[in-house]
Specification:
Length: 158
C-alpha cells in the first residue's frame, strides 16, 4: 500500500521537469494510478485543502484513490494517522520528502521514499515495455495439420 503526499510529489515533479510543460495534479494522479496498477499495488494520494470544486476528473482515475485533507487539518496529519492506524506498517510505503512524515514512517518500520526517488522509479517503470505472453501460433502460424483441420471444418478443399 502506498500513501503519497500529493502536493509534495507535485512540487518535486515540477522541480524535476525539463521543459515548458507542467504536470497538473490530475495528470500526476493518472501517472501514479498507471504505475500502481502495473505493480498490482493499492495506493492513495492525499492533497492539502479541499481541492477543486469539480472533482470529477479525479473520480475517473483508475488505480489510485485521491483524497483531500479538507479544512482544519493538513496532509501531514492525515498521512501520520494512516501510518499509525495501519495494521501492517512494513507493507506500507510513504512517499514524501517531508522529514516529519519520513520520521513517522521509520518509527512504525514502514517504507519511506523521497518524492524525487519515487517519481524517477515511476517514470522508469512506465517507460518499460511489457512482455506479453503470446500464443506460439501468432508468430509461427498454424502447423500443416492445424491448417488442414480448419480447412476441413469449413469445408474448403486444399
Amino acid at each position: 500500500m502506498f500513501v503519497i503526499d500529493g502536493h509534495n510529489l507535485l512540487w518535486a515533479v515540477q522541480g524535476m521537469a525539463s521543459g515548458p510543460e507542467e504536470i497538473s495534479d490530475v495528470g500526476l494522479c493518472r501517472a501514479v494510478g498507471r504505475y500502481l496498477k502495473q505493480r498490482r499495488e493499492a495506493g492513495e494520494v492525499v492533497f492539502d485543502g479541499t481541492g477543486p470544486r469539480d472533482k470529477s476528473e479525479f473520480d475517473k482515475i483508475d488505480g489510485v484513490e485521491v483524497l483531500f485533507a479538507g479544512f482544519g487539518t493538513d496532509t501531514d496529519t492525515i498521512i501520520e494517522g494512516k501510518i499509525s492506524a495501519n495494521n501492517a506498517p512494513k507493507s506500507l510505503t510513504v512517499v514524501s520528502s517531508d522529514n516529519r512524515l519520513r520520521k513517522a514512517a521509520r518509527a512504525r518500520k514502514a517504507n519511506s521514499l523521497k518524492s524525487e526517488e519515487f517519481w524517477s522509479e515511476l517514470m522508469k517503470e512506465l517507460g518499460r515495455k511489457r512482455v506479453v505472453d503470446e500464443p506460439t501460433g501468432k508468430r509461427g502460424g498454424l502447423s500443416d495439420a492445424e491448417t488442414e483441420q480448419w480447412l476441413d471444418f469449413f469445408g474448403i478443399e486444399s
